[in-house]
Amino acid sequence: MASKMFSKSANSKNKLKRNHFKSASRARSEECIWEIEDKARNNFLSASLRQHEITTDSKRKKSHLVGREIVRIITRDGVRDLLVSNKTPNSQTVFWPEQELSRLQANSKVMTVEDKMQELKLSVQKNEKLKEQSEQRKQKLKEIDTAKVSKMEDQKEPLISDDNENIKLLDRAFLAKQEQEEEVKKANRIILATKCSIIRDAQIAEKNEIAREFRNENLRLEKIMLEERDKALVEEELKREQERTNLLKYSKEIRKQLEERELIRAKEVERIEEEAIAMKKALDVMEKQEQEKTKIRNEKIQKIREGLQKSSQWTQYFKNLQFEEERIAELKVQEYMRQKLEREKRLALERRLAKEEKEKEYERILQRQQKLTESKSERNELEYRRQREEVEREFRRREKEAAIKKREMADDIAKARHVQLEEVKRQRAMQIARDEANFKEFMEKLRIEKDREEQRKKLRHENKYKYRDEIVSQMTQKRLKKREEDERIKREQLAVVEAERQREK
Q: Taking Cα atoms as reference points, which of 44, 76, 79 lies closest to residue 168?
C-alpha cells in the first residue's frame, strides 16, 4: 500500500517537473530570441554616422581587432562596424557569465521537496512575467515600426521649395542604395545564422539539462520511496507489537475494573439500603411532628372557641345590663311623672283653695264696700277701689310666678330626661363599639393564625414531597447510571473478546 502511494506521488511529481521544464525551455528560447532581436535593432538604430566619419573610423582600428571578421552595417541613421564572434570560442575564459554563475550556485544547494515546489512556483511566476514582458516588447516594437512608417509616409510628401526636405530625400535614397549592397545583405544573413545557432545551442543545452535533472529526480524519488517503504514496514511491525502489548494491558485493566465495579456495586447496594432506612426514619419523625403540630393547632382552635363563647357571654351580659338600665330609667321616668301629677294635683288644690279664699275675700270686700257705700263718702269708695286693684295685682303676680315656676320645672324635667337618655345611648354605643372592636380583633387574630397554620402546613407538605421526589430522583439516576455502567462493561468485554479472537486468527 505504501509503495503504491509513493509511486503515485512520484509519477505526479515527474509530470509536474516535465511540464515545468518544457515551459521553462520555451520561455528561455523565446527570451533569447527577443534579446538577439533587441540587440540587432539597437545596433541598427544606433549606427547613424555620416559618410566622412566612416573613413576616419576605418583608419583608427584597434590592435585587438586585427585578424577578426568585421561587418559594416549602413542604415538611414548611420553606418556601424560589427565584430563577428568566433565559431570556436576561447575555453579558458577569465570570468563566467551571470546566468552560468547563478546556475552553478543554484545546483550547489541541497534542495528539499518544499524548496523545489517553491522554485517551481517561482519559475512559473517568472515565465508569466517573461511572457508579459515579451508581449510588451512586441507591442513596443510594433509601435516603433508604426511610428517609422508614419514618419516615412510624412516624409514622402513633396516639399520642393524646402531645402531640408531635399536633404532628407537624398538621405533616403542613399540609405536605399546602401541596403542593396552585398555587405549589408551578408550582415543580415550572419545575424540570422547567429540567431538560429544560439537558439539551437540553447535548446540542446536546455534539453540535456532537463534530461539530467529528470534522471536525478527519478533516482531521488525512487530512493525516497524505498526509504519510506522500509520505514513504513518498521512502523507497521512496531505498531503490531504495541497493539499486542496494549491488548494484554487492557485485558488486565478490564479485569481489575470489573473487580472494582463489583465492590463498588456492593457498597452502593448497602448505601441505598441505609438511605432507605434513614428516609423511613425521617418520614416517621416528620409524621410525629405533624401529629404534634395538629394537636397544638386543635388546642389553639379550642381556646379560640372558648374565647368566642366567653365573648358571646359578655355580649349577652352587657345586653342584659343595658336592658336593666333602660328599665330602671323607664321606672324613674314613670316615678317622675307620678310625682309630677301629684304636684300638679296639689297645685290645682292649692289654686282652688286660693281661689275660694279669694272669692271669700272678695265677698268680704263687697260686703264691706256695701257697708262703706252706705256709711262713707266718695273718698272711701276710691280707697276701696285702690285696695281692690292691689289685691287683683297681687293675685295676678302670684299666678304669673306659679306659671313661670311650673314652666321652668317642666323644662328642667325635659332637659334632665334628655340628658339621661343621651347618656344611656352613649354608654350603650360605647359598649357595642368595644364589643365589636374586641370581636373584630379576636377574629383577625384567629384568621392570621389560621393563615399561618395553613402556610406552615402547605410548606411542610411541599418539603415532604420535594424531599421524597429528590430521593426518588437520586435513586432513579443511580439506577440509570448503574445500567449504563453495566452496558459499557459488557461492550468493553465484547470488544476485548473480539480483539482476542481477531488476534488468534
A: 76
| Pairwise CA distance, residues 467 & 455, whole Å | 18
Cβ atoms within 10 Å, residue 316: 10
pLDDT of 38 over the 80 cut: no
Cell numbers that stand for 131 in this block = 511572457
Residue 364 CB: number of other CB atoms within 10 A?
Answer: 10
Amino acid occupying residue 482:
K
Q: How confident is the model at residue 109, as a pLDDT?
A: 66
Dihedral, CA of residue 410, residue 415, residue 416 and residue 421, to nearest 10 = 130
Distance CA 485, CA 492 (A): 10
Q: 74: part of which helix (H) or strand (E)?
A: strand 70-74
341 has a pLDDT exceeding 60:
yes
- Residue labelled with grid coordinates 306659679: 402
* 381, 389 contact by CB (below 8 A): no
448-486: buried (b, 16+ CB within 10 Å) or exposed (e) per residue?
Answer: eeeeebeeeeeeeeeeeeeeeeebeeeeeeeeeeeeeee
Under the banding of pLDDT at 50, 70 and 90, the label for residue 104 is confident
Q: What is the DSSP letter of 181?
A: S
Report in angstroms the alpha-carbon separations of 198 from 30, 169, 202.
11, 38, 6
Radius of gyration of the chain measured on its C-alpha atoms: 76
Would you give the DSSP letter of residue 66? T
Mean pLDDT to the nearest integer, 138-143:
76
In the predicted model, what is the mean pLDDT of the chain? 71
Cell matching residue 505: 486468527
Q: Which residue type, as a one-letter code, is found at position 8?
A: K
Indicate whether 141 pLDDT > 50. Answer: yes
**Environment class of residue 422 by beta-carbon count within 10 Å: exposed (0-12), middle (13-18) or buried (19+)?**
exposed
Q: Tell me the pLDDT tens digit for each residue of 405-437.
A: 777 877 777 777 777 778 777 877 787 777 777
For 407, half-sphere exposure in the C-beta direction (CA atoms, 13 angstrom radius) is 5
Encode 387-414: b = buried (16+ Cβ within 10 Å), e = exposed. eeeeeeeeeeeeeeeeeeeeeeeeeeee
How far is residue 487 CA from its own chain's centroid?
40
- CB atoms closer than 10 angstroms to residue 26: 15
- Diameter over CA atoms, the chain: 228
Place of cell 402547605: 458
pLDDT by residue (tens digit) across 217-275?
878 888 888 888 888 888 888 888 887 787 777 777 777 777 887 788 778 777 777 87
Alpha-carbon distance values, 208 to 214, 215, 219 (Å)? 10, 11, 17
- Cell numbers given for 128: 508569466
